[in-house]
Write a structure and sequence with these properties.
heterodimer; A: alpha/beta; 8 helices; 12 strands; disordered N terminus; B: alpha+beta; two-stranded antiparallel ribbon
């Protein structure tokens, strides 16, 4: 594939199929390596899981089923709180959606593309370009300033690094005056705000937040939640926030319980 | 941000470990550079290009001592030869140039070796690389036209701040306890352009003036006895031959002779040379003619007991292979070991940091960095450490040579260009740095294999 060229193919919708398949546009997008995954455009859904299964190998050779999701979906721009107990598979689910972990079977359609069918390097690139992730313990890189941490979010996508965009995001999360401070010089709340800015650096369609308030005090908890929700709304990104705390989930318009749709041992 | 920027930031984060690792690489490369430069300088010095003479004729004794004293001026002369013997070689039909060489004194200032020789010395090539290299003097200047003329080497001029017209005195017997300063003064009439040979740190005076210095003229009776012994001739016959000189000497001793009315001339019988340099006649149609003549003379002298003839090139090659070569091999081997140790140091430093950096790698992977990207970042860190250390080592190594060259020169008499470099550096240093970079492969593979989900969960 020659960088810069693209190919478009229009397919008609099939009766009874989800809108993601209707009038989808398969496009080859240019990228640094000259290869990219086909993208399906025009989707109204930002996330769809179908018949997803994931299990881990045990030391005795057996397998431990962790995920068994028959159907789960989120609309574009929707904000959903996913509540579940510890060890219930919340993080594995997020890893499957972000492509960090490959699923055993099923479809993981993010922003119109089934990433379960992609090889690992393509999942990595997709994650860098189209997803934003906010971790429980922020996971900022200590060697880099707040600004550089945000720029790092852009670096791995193979797209041009937009310094102005990074500055604007940090301004928006209230850290315009601390751009050149490294994480150890920032408070816990400030670190999480940098993490939010980094997650939005590439204008993702879907933001995944894994217990983003678990490491902050209650005073900062609601501020962080408000910030994530507001910024995602402004950016037009869907938000899937995973938490074990009902008081966090209750501020979301849609709350789903993992146990309701995840039956690892059952037939997906 | 490119990969090198990310790698550089990571190195800065661990600045102490990074600096120590870089310094260990730098020290290894510096040592290697120093050894290579010394290897080149010493190799050149003891190679075939180091001299332009075909034969050195000197008294019986050590061949090595004769070459070291005559060519390198770093050993004491063996003994002396009669001037008549030199004249014989001068008239030999096989010989193009026969050059008398008298030494043992040094300059009073700077203690540079002084050589009494004839202007012919400057007509002979000082080296063959492989073309004959001729002496040149800075303008204005000439080569030993008068009795009290001197020509000085480039290094002598630089160190003593001497130029045309500078006058100096000699220290008899060199810097020894019984050495005394001669009253007579020589005047600099020529300053040699640098040759890169021991000639640069020598002072050449006219052989006539050299003999006129007190103590350089052998007592007549003693000289006649020595000549009789050397040429196996009847002493009475020689006394008859030198009757006039003996009478003159007797008059001198009685104090009845007035030197003021004519220049004092040293009789040939009282003159001695330390060695004789021979340049053989060359035949453009027969390349081997000069070599065959040299071999013939060597064989002739081997049969007698008068003197020895040595081919300086052969002796220098022996010195090189037996002494210097082995020492250099050991030094190069040790340097190789040091580079290996530096490489292991880089490996240990980066590998140890991997445990604490596994989380950072996992974060980058979670942000979308591919496996190859994170392993390239680790390799970039190794490249920065090794190239940075290598460049620092090059500077350190050449700095060491720059600082050490005058000290080595003062202690050993070996001329070492402070700005010398070895062409091997262009190959050996990049290879060493490349090998050190290879030590980053295992840590980069570790980074490649990092399990993101597991690491972040922990």
């Amino acid at each position: 594939m020659i960088p810069g060229l693209y190919f478009e193919a229009y397919t008609h919708s099939m009766p009874g199929r989800a809108p993601v398949d209707a009038w989808s546009v398969i496009r080859y997008t240019p990228c640094s390596t000259g290869w990219s995954a086909p993208m399906e455009m025009g989707s109204l859904m930002s996330l769809q899981l179908r018949n997803v299964k994931k299990s881990f190998r045990l030391p005795d050779g057996g397998r431990l089923p962790v995920l068994g999701v028959r159907e789960f979906s989120m609309n574009a721009g929707e904000q959903v709180a996913l509540i579940g107990s510890s060890g219930g598979g919340k993080t594995t689910l997020l890893n499957a959606i972000s492509g960090i972990t490959a699923v055993d079977e099923g479809e993981v359609i993010v922003d119109g593309l089934d990433i379960a069918k992609l090889p690992e390097p393509s999942r990595d690139r997709f994650r860098a370009q189209r997803l934003g992730i906010v971790f429980q313990s922020f996971h900022l890189l200590p060697a880099f300033t707040a600004l550089e941490n945000v720029l790092l979010g852009m670096t791995f996508g193979g797209q041009p690094v937009r310094r102005e965009r990074a500055r604007e995001l940090l301004d928006r999360v209230g850290l315009g005056h601390r751009m050149n401070h490294r994480p150890p010089m920032l408070s816990v709340g400030e670190q999480q705000r940098v993490a939010v800015a980094r997650a939005l650096a590439n204008s993702p369609k879907l933001v995944l937040a894994d217990e983003p308030t678990a490491s902050v005090d209650s005073a900062n908890q609601s501020k962080i939640l408000d910030l994530i929700r507001t910024v995602c709304e402004q950016e037009g990104a869907s938000l899937l926030l995973v938490t074990h705390a009902p008081e966090v989930a209750q501020v979301f318009p849609r709350v789903v319980t993992l146990a309701d749709f995840n039956q690892p041992g059952g037939a997906a | 941000m490119n990969l090198f920027t990310i790698a550089w930031k990571n190195l800065k984060q661990r600045s102490l470990a990074s600096v120590l690792t870089m310094v260990s690489v730098a020290l290894g490369v510096a040592l290697m550079v120093t050894v290579l430069v010394l290897h080149g300088v010493i190799g050149k010095m003891f190679s075939q290009s180091g001299t332009g003479y075909d034969l050195i004729i000197g008294p019986q004794g050590s061949e090595t001592q004769l070459v070291l004293s005559t060519v390198y001026r770093i050993d004491k002369p063996i003994e002396n030869l009669p001037w008549r013997y030199y004249l014989q070689w001068k008239d030999d039909p096989r010989v193009d140039l026969a050059i008398p060489f008298c030494f043992g004194d040094t300059t009073n200032e700077g203690n540079f070796p002084v050589i009494g020789t004839s202007p012919q010395f400057f007509k002979a090539p000082y080296a063959r690389t492989p073309e004959p290299q001729q002496f040149r003097v800075w303008n204005p200047g000439d080569f030993l036209q008068g009795t009290w003329d001197a020509v000085i080497g480039a290094e002598v001029a630089r160190k003593n701040q001497w130029g045309i017209g500078s006058q100096f005195q000699l220290l008899h017997g060199g810097n020894t306890e019984d050495g005394h300063v001669h009253d007579e003064k020589f005047t600099v009439k020529g300053v040699l352009k640098p040759t890169g040979t021991p000639n640069d740190r020598c002072v050449f005076v006219h052989v006539d003036g050299f003999f006129l210095l007190a103590g350089h003229e052998k007592p007549l009776i003693e000289a006649i006895q020595r000549e009789a012994l050397f040429f196996a001739e009847d002493i009475n016959g020689l006394k008859e031959k030198y009757k006039a000189e003996l009478a003159h000497a007797a008059e001198d001793e009685a104090g009845g002779h007035d030197h003021a009315h004519h220049a004092h001339a040293v009789p040939d019988v009282a003159k001695e040379v330390t060695s004789i340099l021979l340049v053989m006649k060359r035949d453009p149609t027969d390349q081997l003619a000069a070599t065959m003549s040299s071999l013939g003379i060597k064989q002739e002298l081997k049969k007698g007991m008068q003197a020895q003839a040595v081919n300086p090139i052969q002796v220098m090659s022996q010195i090189m292979s037996k002494l210097v070569g082995n020492l250099q091999t050991v030094l190069l081997f040790m340097t190789g070991l040091i580079i290996a140790v530096s490489g292991i140091g880089v490996f240990v430093s980066i590998y140890n940091s991997m445990a604490e950096r596994r989380r950072e790698i996992a974060i980058m992977r979670a942000l979308g960095a591919q496996r190859t990207t994170v392993s390239m970042i680790i390799l970039c860190e190794t490249v920065l450490l090794c190239v940075g250390g290598g460049l620092l080592g090059l500077v350190l190594g050449h700095g060491l040579v720059y600082v050490a060259s005058p000290i080595i020169e003062a202690r050993s008499g070996l001329l070492l260009d402070p700005r010398a470099w070895s062409p091997y550096e262009l190959v050996v240093v990049p290879i060493s740095i490349g090998l050190a970079i290879l030590s980053g492969l295992i840590p980069s593979i570790t980074a490649y294999r990092t399990d993101v989900a597991e690491t972040l969960a922990n």
